[in-house]
Amino acid sequence: MIVLDQNIVNVALPAVQSGLGLSSENLVWVVNAYVIPFGGLLLLAGRLGDLIGRKAVFLTGIVLFSASSVLCGVAGSETSLIVSRFLQGMGGAVASACILGMVATVFSGRREQAQAIAAYSFASAGGGAVGPLLGGVLTEMLSWHWIFFINAPIGATLVLVGMRVIPGDRGEGMGKGTDFLGALLVTSGMMLLVYTVVDAERVGWGAARTLLLGPLSLLLLIGFVVRQATAARPLLPLSLFRSRSLAAANIVQFLMIAGMFGLLFFGTLYLQRVLRYGSLQAGLGFVPIAVVIAVVSLGLSTRLITKFGRRAMLLLGLALIVGAFVMLSFARVDGVYLVDFLPASLVMGLGFGLAAPAVMGLGMTAVSSAESGIASGLFNTTQQIGGALGLTVLSAFVSARTNSLIAAGTTEAEALVGGYHVAFLAAAGFTLTALIIGTGLLKATPPVGVEQQSTESPVQNAPAS
């Protein structure tokens, strides 16, 4: 639901702008007002899950997300919509920060945990792929209001079922880690960093505001690191990063997601602006990748991880993603979907379906159960920052290449495709870097079945790195 909402809005933006009379300058804040609190609150929310209890924090986030979705749907002005989207981003962060932590503690057997992480990976990737399709369907058949209203019944069902089936947990207690100064530094630093990145796409990286706010956000984050090194009860214990597996897995995920956002964004633009697909057709174009991810994540990946180990499947998946981006870099101006887009998207789905569960498993099994909430928040943070930074960098490459081709006298379609080629090759470079880092820093892991078949928690028995 949360990942779907991030992508479903993009398709409906023209309808939202027309319905509320938003200016082009303010329209971007329908997206940014969600992204900024979401990226900024993940670490704090993950730590609160460790201290208060993950079930309570998760359900609170779902309630806030669902209620604010209704407020978005009934919004009658741009101000009310933007404020409601900010609240929705807060709810999304609070809910999603605890999910991987719950997976790591509730599902204790290694094979069972691998299956649960694979299902989580499918939900994340599937939501991203299906978002454009569902957004087009709801907007065209009903109205843009329903892209928000749809969250209300889903959220209500989640709360009712979650109260019954999610095991209760007490948490360590607020006295174990109430680092309020650290929370203030990291939350303000992350929000300001996300704001600077998304705003730089509009005002430019050389603008005075970007040059002022960028270093300021980094200073806040540096202050947070210094605080964690000296605090008696840090929000994010730096000892976590002594685990080479956790640190490397987060770096690999950061680079992988930075590249994947390029597929979702520039792949959609290629279908719509070059192949002249409508919003609904473009959404349907991403259905095959969602199907492949579902088949691989929910069935194939667990068996392969059980047989060959997580590291091997991660490296294979990353290699497939690199190959898929290289294939997309040959997409033609007069291209055909079945030739220029579908084969690469199928390879991409196979690669992501293998890599995502493996990298999450490698990272989450490297921490203790008491730290799984903050580790979950850290993983979600690297996803959000990786996506935001990756898309910004790729957009800059596309703009530069497209403008240079137009200046050289090429047609608009040729210039656009030339820009997309650069984006896909850069995304391949991100993923190739992730592959090199994973090869060098992640230790070879034995098959899951060899690691542990008992019902003991894997995080309690993880070897020291």
UniProtKB/TrEMBL annotation:
Extract the InterPro entries matched here: EmrB-like, MFS, MFS_dom, MFS_trans_sf
**What is the membrane topology noted in the UniProt record heading this document?**
Multi-pass membrane protein
Q: Which UniProt keywords apply?
A: Antibiotic resistance, Cell membrane, Membrane, Transmembrane, Transmembrane helix, Transport
Tell me where in or outside the cell this protein is found.
Cell membrane
Ranges where the Major facilitator superfamily (MFS) profile domain occurs? 1-446
Instruction: Provide the transmembrane region boundaries.
Output: 27-45, 57-76, 82-107, 119-138, 144-166, 178-198, 204-226, 247-271, 277-300, 312-331, 343-367, 420-442
Main location, first listed in the record: membrane
CDD domains linked to this entry = MFS_MMR_MDR_like (cd17321)
Q: Which top-rank group of organisms is this from?
A: Bacteria
PANTHER family recorded for this chain? BLR6921 PROTEIN, MAJOR FACILITATOR SUPERFAMILY MULTIDRUG TRANSPORTER MFSC
This chain belongs to the protein called DHA2 family efflux MFS transporter permease subunit
Taxonomy of origin reads: Bacteria, Bacillati, Actinomycetota, Actinomycetes, Kitasatosporales
